[in-house]
Design a protein that fits this description.
Layout: E1 5-7, E2 16-18, E3 23-24, E4 35-37, E5 41-48, E6 51-57, H1 58-67, E7 75-79, E8 92-96, H2 97-107, H3 123-134, H4 139-146, H5 150-158
Antiparallel strand pairs: 1-2, 2-3, 4-5, 5-6, 7-8
Helix pairs in contact: 4-5
């Protein structure tokens, strides 16, 4: 199958994006470098003589060029297979946030619990906290022990957070 190229909306004549997720200058054929945004989505810089340089997410460029603008402001680019660097057109769609989150749960890429980078508590700690709460250990004592706010302990005990444990 041959790679298809379309003009990047708003950047016609300056940049094109392919159905494989590559971005190029149509005059020179130079392929733009891409880098990870927060170790997740690929992004690239677009610039012109009349505008400041802007950093854009590649999957949004692919969707805009091949599928058009998002249906509403609430739609976001979703990766069907959960691989944030896979910006092939067939892997992308416009989706509402709730649908995108369901996709993340389905393919196991949604960060939960200890996988969240700034998480202080771990799965074993949550089990212990719930056990101690069942024995009427005060929230404040548990919060002090783990160095977190009382509301964090309360949310974990009630299943508002850490409901997968």
């Amino acid at each position: 199958m041959k790679e298809r190229w379309k003009a990047v909306p708003g950047w016609e004549g300056l940049y094109e994006v392919s159905d494989l997720g590559r971005v190029r200058n149509p005059r020179t054929g130079h392929i733009k470098a891409q880098h990870r945004h927060g170790n997740k989505y690929l992004q690239t810089w677009l610039c012109s003589p009349k505008r400041n340089a802007v950093c854009v997410l590649v999957h949004r460029l692919v969707l805009a060029a091949f599928k058009g603008s998002p249906p509403t402001d609430k739609h976001e680019g979703a990766h069907r297979n959960g691989k944030a660097a896979d910006n092939r057109l067939g892997n992308l769609r416009w989706a509402l946030h709730a649908s995108n989150e369901q996709d993340k749960i389905r393919h196991g890429t949604r960060l939960r619990g200890a996988r969240v980078g700034n998480s202080v508590l771990k799965t074993q700690s949550i089990r212990y906290i719930r056990k101690m709460r069942a024995r009427n250990v005060p929230l404040k004592a548990l919060a002090t022990r783990y160095g977190v706010h009382i509301s964090t302990i309360s949310a974990a005990c009630c299943g508002v957070s850490w409901n997968h444990v």
